[in-house]
Amino acid sequence: MIDQDGYFGESVAQRYDDSSSEMFQHDVVAVTADVLAGLAAGGRALELGIGTGRVAVPLAERGVQVHGIDLSRAMVARLRAKPGGDAIGVTIGDFATTTVGGTFSLAYLVFNTIMNLTTQEEQVACFRNVAAHLAPGGCFVVEVMVPELRKLPPGQQAVPFQTGASGWAFDLYDVATQQMSSNYVEVVDGRGSYRSIPFRYVWPAELDLMAQLAGLRLRERWDGWTRAPFTNESPSHVSVWEKPVG
Ligand SMILES: C[S@@+](CC[C@H](N)C(=O)[O-])C[C@H]1O[C@@H](n2cnc3c(N)ncnc32)[C@H](O)[C@@H]1O
Questions:
Q1: Residue 120 vs residues 40, 128, 183: alpha-carbon distances, Å
Q2: Taking CB atoms and a 6 Å cutoff, what residues make up the pocket around ligand 1?
């Protein structure tokens, strides 16, 4: 359901940090924050789609000054309630176009959130917005899945990713338009609910072209936060583009 907070309104925000997904495990978040702290290299960091501060709070704990942008007041309220959350500045707005003061040595957009921008124009605008916020030598980090089209047999659009007694979840792909959605069916006390979030899936090479349009160039592409090499079997990637000096 969409409201003024987008797809991350109160009902999502109140349960967001209870997830049992590995993305919320302490060691996974710690490695993420360590890599980002290294890339910030003593400068300020800008998180696009900061949410509840899953990554921003541990990054700030590592001594990095973090500022965030997010559409959802409900998600940001959870960040504010965390120890250290008050020290993190947040601007409410669309990260494709919202500007904040000063420059940053690091901007980052994790957990597939680039795909929340559902048009190519918005994704390109996001790269341009980031580039305008980066100091020369600064970098932009994106963590995003590789589209799972290899799991689609001809004529089929759905990729299930959760099947259980009380819930099912599946992605729907439209390969003609590059639109997709993640869909969740949950049954509680015999009553079903359905939630659908729209995305635009995007390939690594297309992201490189967006970076090029914004004046950035690829520095690294890893399979994940452990910095393992990205291969043709990698389910996702962490990519780092830099703003050239001079
Ligand atoms: C999957 S959550 C990720 C939150 C956090 N980065 C994390 O890793 O846990 C996506 C977040 O991006 C925000 N978001 C999605 N689209 C946005 C947009 N166009 N502008 C600003 N925030 C957006 C949502 O409100 C939500 O808080």
A1: 28, 12, 22
A2: 6, 8, 49-51, 54-55, 69-72, 75, 94-96, 110-111, 113, 116-117
